[in-house]
């Protein structure tokens, strides 16, 4: 019985978080009641899982960042050459960023758990960029902290390209990953 209750609680938390992402993306000031309605749950159920709006925002931040970590690890970056790994990680991360667009693009609560997950994301990214540098994809004297910042900016900008909403194919994570990696490694200069 306890296991069924736990599974039910996990499902309702997941439904609340997914509904919160959708609702808050449309209206950042949405109420807990609106989120509950979108999740198909009562307001009391939402409040049972999250004491207040801040607790819900904190859970959103942790959930989205955990999904980024999972996406990076799913790409198995150590099992392929740096270029292949960078492409896989980028495509996976773009999928998560598209799904959690509100949470990952807004300043969310920086709990200890969210901060630890962000440190893990940074560590994975720096490890991958270090491998890319060792394999000659990045200049030997490239500043990897700056390169990491540029990479993160490219990820965000790829999802927010002007006119992308008119061309759904342009939002395909595989297409965007190619764009991000090509821009990161070659900039806007000639490719020859």
From TrEMBL:
The keyword Zinc-finger does not apply. This is TetR/AcrR family transcriptional regulator. It comes from the Bacteria. Keywords: DNA-binding, Transcription, Transcription regulation. It comes from Streptomyces coeruleofuscus. Residues 10-68 form the HTH tetR-type domain. InterPro entries: Homeodomain-like_sf, HTH-type_TetR-like_transc_reg, HTH_TetR. Pfam families: TetR_N. The keyword Transcription applies. PROSITE patterns: HTH_TETR_2. Residues 31-50 bind DNA.
């Amino acid at each position: 019985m306890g296991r069924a209750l736990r599974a039910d609680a996990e499902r309702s938390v997941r439904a609340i978080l997914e509904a919160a992402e959708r609702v808050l993306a449309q209206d950042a000031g949405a109420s807990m009641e609106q989120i509950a309605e979108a999740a198909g749950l009562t307001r009391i159920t939402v409040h049972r899982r999250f004491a207040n709006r801040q607790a819900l925002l904190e859970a959103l931040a942790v959930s989205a960042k955990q999904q980024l970590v999972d996406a990076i690890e799913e790409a198995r970056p150590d099992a392929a050459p740096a270029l292949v790994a960078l492409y896989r990680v980028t495509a996976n991360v773009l999928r998560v960023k598209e799904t959690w667009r509100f949470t990952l693009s807004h300043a969310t609560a920086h709990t200890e758990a969210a901060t630890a997950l962000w440190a893990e994301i940074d560590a994975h990214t720096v490890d991958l960029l270090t491998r890319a540098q060792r394999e000659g994809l990045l200049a030997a004297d490239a500043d990897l902290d700056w390169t990491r910042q540029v990479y993160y900016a490219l990820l965000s900008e790829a999802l927010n390209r002007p006119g992308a909403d008119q061309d759904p194919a342009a939002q395909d994570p595989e297409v965007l990953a190619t764009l991000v990696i090509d821009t990161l490694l070659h900039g806007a200069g000639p490719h020859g």
